[in-house]
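Typical record was shown:
=====
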Amino acid sequence: MLQALYFCKPFRHAILEYHESLPKDHDESLLTALGDLFSSISNQKKRTGVFSPKRFIERLKKDNVIFNSYMHQDAHEFFNFVVNECCEVLVKQHRKEHPTPEGEPTKPVKTWIHEIFEGGLTNQTQCLWCENVTSRHEAFMDLSLDIEQNASVSACLKQFSSNELLASQDKFQCDACGGLQEAHKRMLVKSSPKVLALHLKRFKYLESLGRHAKLMHRVVFPSELKIPNMEEEAEGQDAAYQLFAVVVHVGSGPNHGHYVCLVKSHGQWLTYDDDTVERMDDEGMNNFFGSTREHGGGNTEHGYILFYERVDGAEWSGSVAPGEGARGARGGLTEALATAQQSQ
């Protein structure tokens, strides 16, 4: 996950800029610890090497006891916690520097992390009696998608926005006709984020087994993507995305396993497995889609979290640009750089 965040160009550039602006006597937080790690990688003069994020992991365990153990932790929970905690640090800092005048309501703060990952959803509920549509808007930092066998990410996004019938005990209280009515409910994407994080829900409770299990389903994720479930009048209808990182879960179940990261640099896919980095051709990505067999056969390496960056034009800017190297604008550290993930 740390490799995916580092190779997220907008996030890396923003956190390095934030890190450089900090005073020497700044208070430590998860955000400053992550900035220290990224800065150490970015300023490294060696062409190859390994960084262990020891200080960052120590801060992570201090901020959240869930990660203070040797148990297997979920990469999606890790991503959510890191992003939300870093946002909270920035919000507190902003409110400290710009206090709300007495008597005025506290306004929400939009940080540079929100500007990168945040998108918008419209929750639509249509009364089946009077056909009135009630809309409610909400923000998201990532989308969690249910998966089915032999599906694609586009199909999963369409399923995310499919109609859900509200009936029986779940009837909708319609303000227009003033009663409990059957209704259709669906979620549409209202605004597309700069970086689209998609979480494939591979871990599910199966009643037939009486426990949580890993879904080995084959889910194809393309290198290029357009969001098929956007609201009709939403801006960015034709927004195009390109894949730049994939977090892969290796293992047969939800309570054990290992994570590796696939990132694209200089047009080349690389596999980051702790301190080991290997080249991978484009066809190798097919090995991480999943299995058409119910129990997955011998393959337990499956795409779990996908990172796409929006392309505002013909030029791709998601991975590190030629000449930058894997350590940002200063260049020098090539694809052999890895950050040991430890429990993450």
